[in-house]
Amino acid sequence: MTSFVTMVTRIVTTGKAMRTIKASEFKAKCLALMDTVASTGETLVVTKNGKPVAELRPYSSGRIDSPFGLHPALEIHGDVVAPLDETLWKAVG
What we know:
This protein has two helices and four strands, in the order ββαββα. It is of the alpha+beta class. The protein has a domain at 1-59: YefM-like fold, CATH 3.40.1620. It starts with 9 loop residues before the first strand and ends with a helix.
């Protein structure tokens, strides 16, 4: 039964211990690990040859608040979709 026991260590960064898992085990159990991370909120560190190479963490809704992905400090003044006045078109051309 010991072969079934997951070899888990802890990496301490900024005072918080994170669960680690070997890449080979991650590959075999990827979908189940994704479900676990999603439900527990715990970050999982994947190691290769004993060195951390990746982190699996819960998705944190990467939606941005600004329109069209623009910088949050950008301000739009006026109607940017209305046709330009004919005199402005002549100035551009």
